[in-house]
Amino acid sequence: MIKQNLLKVTNLSISLSNNGEEKKLINSISFHINSNEILAVVGESGSGKSISSLCLMGLLPKAVLKTTSGSIFYKNQDLTKISETEFQNIRGKKIAMIFQEPMSSLNPSMRCGKQVEEILKQHTNLSRFEIKDEILSLFEKVKLPNPKRIYKSYPHEISGGQKQRVMIAMAIACKPEILIADEPTTALDVTVQKEILLLLKEIQKETQMSILFISHDLSLVSELADRVMVMYKGEIVEQGITSSIFNQPEHSYTKALINARPSTDYRLKKLPTISDFMEGDINQSIISEDHRIAHHKRLYGQDPLLEVIDVEKVYLSKKGLFSKDIEFKAVDGVSFKVYPGETIGLVGESGCGKSTLGNAILQLDKATSGVIKYKGQNITNLSKAELRELRKDIQIIFQDPFASLNPRMTVGKAIMEPMKVHNIGNSFEDRKERVLDILTKVGLEASSFYKYPHEFSGGQRQRVGIARTIALQPQLIVCDESVSALDISVQAQVLNLLNELKSQFGFTYIFISHDLAVVKYMADQLLVMNKGKIEEIGDADKIYASPEKEYTKKLIHAIPKGL
Q1: Is the overall model pTM greater than 0.85, yes or no?
Q2: 175: left (phi > 0), else alpha (psi -120 to 50), else beta?
Q3: Which of 288, 420, 456, 532 could covalently link to 332 via disulfide, CB atoms 3.0 to 4.6 Å apart?
Q4: Would you list the domain boundaries of the chain?
């Protein structure tokens, strides 16, 4: 059966106006969305995916962005030529959107039910009671637990996966013909990500609506899309049936996106990046099993650098004014060892206790009980002076480098400040010279020293965060979800950089992530956490090849495999 074009984009160009100058962001792109199909748009940040989708919704900020050429036909109507009032009748009713970050898209001061109610009031003639029944029915459809509770809850009272489901319920409330899903699973655990993908597939099959699914992860879209469109620097470089794009990619950029994600079958010495593929400089050297065995023999023949012994972290919460405090064990009797030069991977879903354990090791949030030894010394009861000295040795690379950098301080100053506190370098000039050297080591230009955080891309900011960490010459580094928010290709660059610095400076890493594919690539040993406890611990490759626990099997099964 031949599918009809539901939406057709022809020679669309979008430009950014800045101080009278125009810069073309989208360059004459053409594509179509058929009825009852899922079209995926893939590409890195800045490739033009989200701008194109906002244009389809009539949501471009008109003061700075404008459509300079082309047409967008939805059925027989050119969306580039209709008024805002006409668009309001289409937006949410005929073409709906799930935004990337539900927490910033949902109103924090409104209950979830009321937020879905708004769109039904706008586009339907249902009564107040019919609207409530419809919302509860939608919450059941998107598989929210206890719909009546979620209806009355504020966004901060529910999990990330549940917030995303509320957004999906809002988007499908008026039974749109086209649903645009903009990176709807990026910040979610692999298991929740899998659930959301299955849910979207199920809803699409049931309602026969079309979905435009935007992502930077080709492995992910392979499990969902009928067709794939690849965008690079504002242009469409390749499009076709999903199996063809995966099995016979034509463009170097598409090949790069497919190969930049760490393989779960073998371990490359260096992950290929976009520039490697574009320049044809691809090194596919694999770390052999013999090399890994010899490396582990050296690692585990040493005394441990860190010992975590029966550590617990208990939080207390009050149920009411006169009721007894309720105990919640975020970390429950955890024990393991970390050896010099080792990378230990710490994985599990959100809320399993990974970050709480990391904070306890860093002495940022002290353990309730148990012992943490660093170089044989118990560090759980150090004086302020001793703790300050320890801070130099044990450092952290945060998930969001932008939030951890002072926006009013240049990068050079931000890196030099902790160096001065810990007496590294003899003078300002000495410290500046060291920082310039470190910036070069992490792949940034010397001019970065004088720039502010907002002048960098996400990947560059993560490099700044790494530079600030290694400036203190630490021995143990906790990487807390430090690559989870990055594009696949930028993620490959940062992982390569972390491995290079590890071999150069002899760092030891505790690598915290919910992405098992990334952790398996990085880790010598894998530590799987679930509900505050260690579910499974052992060699990363062995656990991945034959997991013993059901929870670990579930995490591995949820990893997008590609075709």
Answers
A1: no
A2: left
A3: 532
A4: 1-94+178-184+209-250, 290-557
